[in-house]
Amino acid sequence: MSKHLWQTIGLSGLAGFRSMTAPALLSSNLLKYHPQALEGSPLRYLQKPLVANGLKVMALGEMAADKLPQMPDRIAPGVLAGRIASGALIGATLYKVNHGSLLNGALLGSLAAVAGSYLSFFLRKQATQSSGLPGV
Q1: Is the dihedral of CA 72, 60, 120, 51 positive or negative?
Q2: For residues 25 and 30, what is the distance between their CA atoms, to the nearest angstrom?
Q3: Are the C-beta atoms of 10 and 111 separated by less than 8 Å?
Q4: What is the pTM for the complete model shown?
């Protein structure tokens, strides 16, 4: 199995846990290593310092907002769609960097994000029930 397949599964799975953290990590990494494979691609914007920093701020905001009681479950349709989009972006980018198919990367990233979303939802639910603490 290829290295970028596992990178896509791991980072897109993280997008299921935290939708903005995964793109923030990817963008910071791309900024540091600046692969040539993204030149001329619509995905090249992820290599820009402003984008990398903006994604970091958004990731921090997501962590804070996720603690609010009115936030919907991570598997609610609208929230899940955002996590799927995040996973697809990560997968497409990692596959493009490694000269693979954008579509294959996006599909794999989407599936990994869905798996991560459901896994994190049920882990969080189980932890809340086991601890007796209120779930937020």
Answers
A1: positive
A2: 9
A3: no
A4: 0.92
